[in-house]
């Protein structure tokens, strides 16, 4: 895999991962987690904190700056993880099923948050998910993978207008068509697997 | 305002101590032998020990050796344990060494160490160091091993080098476990301190204890046991206090304390 022409071999500051299990630093407060990467990269504390506070507000966690991760719910932790990754300006956001462990309601809210953030920053996001709705709702391009080995089965361009509103999209026949089309591809993949 | 339940749970340690002393008193009165003085006789002997300059110097000698042995042990063991927990190579090198030394009573090494280093401070401090090291290495190892891989990836994504990840992520993430090891190490330091002085009699709290045993001064023997026990409780309580502050972020919300802190 290449980012800006350079081959990716391991984690680095130009690619920001967000994991399913949040991977926050439990010994740091919310503010400490979000400023961590910036301070590590040599930003002055004042600037790091200002940016962190803005991001914490953006993910609707204002007032929780001094809470430790163990005091937060799953959805809140994931929003902190998102803010933490956004804080140090990675060129690409790598999100590995970031909303997979959350309840449906929180998941929808975070999807909306992510779209709003994207509208602002326009960063490239590589988003892994098992939810077809989520994939179509969020993406410009959906890459359907085969089960194992994980190869690319098909690439679907999602031609839906932005900014996207969930309430409008769910009623849009184009959205529904994409979902059905991709679900069918995944069904084919699983059937191929089942055949001896 | 403290509720009735709070008052009881606060007073419980004190009541338990008083109960123990009461049982001791009764048992000593029933048995009534010279070698088992009553609790009251033992307690009355404490002020004369603590008031004696010679004894105080002995006890302070003990504490000094214990502090040095503990500090050096912790400083050496934490990095070693953390490296063992993160590197298969380091672990496979040191693991056999630890497995061999773990079950050996450290005081049993005392006669050999005395042959090399004499009966002075160095030999005793070395034994204390050995006693402290193993639990601290073991717990640091466990703590470092359990650090989530994803936390380290996040650190790498923020631009931390391998050495920085060790200090900035592995160390704090493993800190609760490390401090558990240090607490065990602290108590073991006290135990090895007394046993080292039992073997190399020259100075120290253990020296007072065993000399008075030889001379049949049983009230002093029991008074020293109380003093050493109280030192252990005091040190442990102070350490628990510090530990609680350092790892506040990891404490479960419902906690049953196991200390006098």
* Molecular shape of chain B: globular
Characterize the largest beta sheet of chain A: strand count, sense, and whether it forms a barrel. 3 strands, parallel
C-alpha Rg of chain B (nearest Å): 22 Å
Order of helices and strands of chain B: HHHHHHHHHH
Number of strands of chain A: 7
For the record, the count of structural domains of chain B works out to 1
Question: Structural class, from helix and strand content of chain A?
Answer: alpha/beta
Strand content of chain B: under 5%
Q: What share of the residues of chain B lie within helices?
A: over 70%
Mean pLDDT of chain B: 89
Give the strand content of chain A. Answer: 5-15%
Termini gap of chain A: 32 Å
Number of helices of chain B: 10
CATH architecture of the largest domain in chain A, please? 3-Layer(aba) Sandwich
Termini gap of chain B? 20 Å
Helix content of chain A: 40-55%
Report Rg of chain A. Answer: 18 Å
Describe this structure in words.
The complex is a heterodimer of chains A (196) and B (261). Chain A folds into two domains: 16-128, P-loop containing nucleotide triphosphate hydrolases (Rossmann fold), CATH 3.40.50.300; 130-196, no CATH class. In chain A, 47% of the residues lie in helices and 15% in strands. Chain A has seven helices and seven strands. Chain A has helices at 30-40, 45-58, 74-87, 104-121, 132-138, 166-171, 173-194; strands at residues 2-3, 6-7, 15-18, 92-96, 124-128, 141-145, 152-157. Chain A is globular and about 50 Å long. Chain A starts with a strand and ends with a helix. Chain B is mainly alpha-helical. Chain B has one domain (36-248): MetI-like (MetI-like fold, Orthogonal Bundle), CATH 1.10.3720. Helices cover 80% and strands 0% of the residues of chain B. Chain B is built from ten helices and no strands. The chains are: A alpha/beta (196), B mainly alpha (261). Chain A binds chain B through residues 10-13, 15-17, 19, 21, 23, 25-28, 36-37, 40-41, 68-70, 84-85, 88, 90, and chain B through 148, 150-151, 153-154, 156-160, 164, 168-169, 172-173, 175, 247-250.
């Amino acid at each position: 895999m290449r980012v800006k022409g350079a081959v990716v071999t391991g984690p680095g500051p130009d690619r920001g991962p967000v994991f399913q299990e949040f991977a926050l630093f439990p010994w740091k407060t919310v503010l400490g987690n979000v400023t961590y990467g910036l301070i590590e990269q040599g930003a002055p504390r004042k600037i790091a904190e200002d940016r962190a506070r803005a991001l914490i507000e953006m993910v609707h966690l204002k007032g929780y700056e001094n809470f430790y991760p163990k005091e937060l719910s799953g959805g809140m932790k994931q929003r902190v993880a998102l803010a933490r990754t956004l804080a140090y300006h990675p060129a690409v956001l790598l999100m590995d099923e970031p909303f997979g462990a959350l309840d449906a309601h929180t998941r929808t809210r975070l999807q909306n948050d992510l779209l709003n953030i994207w509208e602002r920053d326009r960063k490239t996001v590589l988003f892994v998910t098992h939810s077809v709705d989520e994939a179509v709702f969020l993406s410009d391009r959906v890459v359907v993978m085969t089960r194992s080995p994980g190869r690319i089965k098909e690439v679907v361009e999602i031609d839906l207008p932005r900014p996207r509103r969930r309430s409008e999209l769910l009623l849009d026949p184009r959205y529904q068509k994409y979902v059905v089309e991709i679900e069918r591809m995944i069904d084919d993949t699983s059937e191929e697997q089942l055949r001896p | 305002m403290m509720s009735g339940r709070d008052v009881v749970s606060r007073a419980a340690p004190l009541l338990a101590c008083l109960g123990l002393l009461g049982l001791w008193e009764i048992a000593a009165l029933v048995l009534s032998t010279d070698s088992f003085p009553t609790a009251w006789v033992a307690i009355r002997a404490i002020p004369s020990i603590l008031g004696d300059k010679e004894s105080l110097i002995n006890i302070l000698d003990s504490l000094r050796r214990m502090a040095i042995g503990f500090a050096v042990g912790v400083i050496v063991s934490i990095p070693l344990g953390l490296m063992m927990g993160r590197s298969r190579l380091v672990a496979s090198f040191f693991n056999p060494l630890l497995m061999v030394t773990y079950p050996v009573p450290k005081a049993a090494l005392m006669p050999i160490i005395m042959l090399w280093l004499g009966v002075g401070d160095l030999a005793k401090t070395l034994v204390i160091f050995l006693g402290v090291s193993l639990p601290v290495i073991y717990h640091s190892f466990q703590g470092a091993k359990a650090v989530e891989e994803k936390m380290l990836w996040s650190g790498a994504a923020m631009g931390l080098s391998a050495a920085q990840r060790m200090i900035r992520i592995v160390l704090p993430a493993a800190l609760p476990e490390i401090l558990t090891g240090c607490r065990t190490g602290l108590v073991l330091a006290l135990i090895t301190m007394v046993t080292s002085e039992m073997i190399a009699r020259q100075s120290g709290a253990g020296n007072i204890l065993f000399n008075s045993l030889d001379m049949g001064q049983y009230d002093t023997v029991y008074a020293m046991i109380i003093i050493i026990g109280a030192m252990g409780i005091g040190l442990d309580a102070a350490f628990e206090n510090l530990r609680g502050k350092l790892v506040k972020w990891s404490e479960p919300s419902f906690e049953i304390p196991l200390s006098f802190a």
